[in-house]
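Protein in question kept in full:
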Amino acid sequence: MFRLAALGLIVSGLLSCMPRQDNSNDVFQRSSPEKEGMRTEGILRFLEEVQTRRIDMHSLMILRHGKVVTEGWWYPYKPDYRHIMHSVSKTFTSTAIGFAVDEKLLSVNDKVISFFPDELPEDPSPYLAELSIRHLLTMSVGQEPAPSFALSDGDWVKRFLATPIVHRPGTVFLYSSFASHMLSAIIQKVSGQTTFDYLKPRLFDPLHITGILWEADAQGITMGGWGMRIRTEDMARLGQFYLQEGRWNGRQLLSEAWIKEASSLQIYQRDSLTLEEELHNNWVQGYGYQIWRCTHNAYRADGANGQFIIIMPEQDAVVVITENTQDTQQILRLVSDHLLPMMTDRPYTVEEEDREQLIANLSALAIPDPFRTAEELEIAKSTVRMYAIEANDRQIENVSFTFDAEGGCQLRLDSREGAQAFAFGPDAWRYGETEKLSPYFLIPRRNPEGLAPFAVAGYSSWTADDELRLRLLYIEDYQEETYVCRFEGDRLEMSLSQSADPSAQTLVLTGSLQ
């Protein structure tokens, strides 16, 4: 996982820069852990555990006293690339509700049906009439199971309101991304703007959060529960904004009262853990307004597969993480075990060996190589291979491989819909863009309109003298496609698998050399 050849990584979290007059401006001040009272040995242990446990980390940023003290990106991820947020998007949506409350456009006690009189079912149930914005914010709608819709299902607001509510609102916690989406729909109703546009002058512009991508539904409503893509540092800006209780650049943008209410315990999750197990489990500490409570009186914005903005008021710290893992509890424990205890009340003197080790480790961060070329193989260079492909469901007619002098490869797929080309480095990542939809967008509720081109990185290896393996990584979605290409004389057999749905049938293409 530590790879000295990785380029484009930042070590500035350990190196002091010229001070700025305002650390809430377009660039955070950089400091060192020891200057801000954080022991370097804890960061080293954290990174060692990530490596040992083979956690698929993508980025890490630690802020203490409003300054970045450590930051790193696992190659090929880089600081200027956005990352999919998944349900971190929910915290941005609830922040929009906070602004609307401050502006007296609504209150959390307003009934949901009051915003959608033309979209109600013919005979609304009493529980639906009781449903308030507060219940949407706290995931206590009372529907069970939580609803799930596809883009082809039509008006999501209407379908949500028609979904039966079986528990009295406010009594049962059940996580529901479509409850979050209803919050976004309400913002659009009361403001006449999408949630994205509503937040721009109130939050994004003041915090200098730029280059945002955010999906929308078929009616043009910003996806309230998912679909945002922002940079790691932009995540840190939201975390610091909450830590500063709504203040930024000397201005109170959002009321302190809202920040405290949104981040406080509003409802407990249902669980079957013992008291001892609950003390160390970050999933049962309670829930605020689209915000999870954590152990140690911290709280977090939380997205699937390990996207975290962890706010630690008692430590005056923010920890931001992007990754791709199913065991998200694991990384939260590492933060609690190794980072949080190392935050002290005063600066300290770091051991020079620890400083140098941390600089070296951050400089060498990289995701594991997907495969490697066997050392004894002579890889193809400066040649082109073109194959006519037999009839297939994807209507791909031709496949070509162009190998450059370094052994890198360009794969081109020609179909009736057009051509797609991807660049792959030789046992290294090569960056590019594509209009081809990420596997992430194969999920029926996703809407990629307006989001292309997609940033990708390609990696190639000859794993046998007749087998070429290609990995295409959608960096802003972290989804992957793997092409296994087998050459036998004039014949090609190429299989394609996608990480978004490992159970899906692998596409196999066969053809002959032209």
